[in-house]
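pasting Tripartite motif-containing protein 16 for the record, 323 residues
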Amino acid sequence: MVGPFHHHPPNKDRKLKCPLRQMHDVNRSAQTAVEDSERIFTELIHSIERSRSEVTQLIRDQEKAAVSRTEGRLERLERLEQEINDLRRRDTELEQLSHTHDHIHFLQSFQSLSAPSESTDKPDEPFSSLFSFDDMRESVRQLRDKLEDFCKGEIKKISDRGPGTTSCSIPISRVITNTDTEQPYSDHPDRFDRWCQVLCRESVCGHRYWEIKWSGSVYMSVSYKSISRKGGGDECVFGYNDQSWSLYCSSSRYSFIHNNIRTDLPVKSISRRIGLYVDHSAGTLSFYSVSDTMRLIHTVQTTFTQPLYPGFWVGSGTSVKLC
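structre below
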């Protein structure tokens, strides 16, 4: 199951190219994701701008209709005012005519004064029923609030998914440190209660490569999620059971551990940055010392039967950081 540290140069070169190819694939995939995101957001912006133009045009159309109705009201009011003036004038003339003693003149004049023309204007609609823009403004505000809430929710989903290489419960920039001080965490079935270990929340699938900076003494591991969490037995320690594989690093010793079998590695020194490469389907797990160059430390060829999760054991005063 465990391959030796020494490899023939061609095989070593081939193994070394795997994480390099993986990093290239990650960079290419990230660039594609950025370009697709930019394109989609640009389309979304254009769609919002079109909607804005449509709403603006709708408001202007409603404004034009409201102004037209108001102008019509003013014209009708002017006609009504003219009719009122005509009626007043007719009333005055009738009053004067009532005092005449010329009966023939009275009859001739009364006929023309007593029959005012009928108004052809329709009754005005109440002013309160004219179009109001308050509902329009409120609808646009609600649209904005719903769109913002939707975007926040979708962005959170994207953020929670995280990048496949380091999508763990610990943020990439966070350092894991053993301070020898018990933390006031409540009990949880997934928490290791005796060992200073942490298991990432999300699995690594397919081809994955990630790097870790370390100091002190650490176990850099991959594990099945089914590893035991409670108690102080070997079934809970990374590398000391058939559920996990670990590279142990300290200032004086480097070893690979799986199923409680420790293999000391004839390595004089290892960089403070370690790269881990997993090809789940091929059953390959490799550890690399990363500095100006990349050097293979150890590789494993096996069969993985479950998804793998990155994990860490940290000794007293030790820290690790996902890069």
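Residues 15-100 form one domain.
The chain has three domains: 15-100, 133-163, 175-322.
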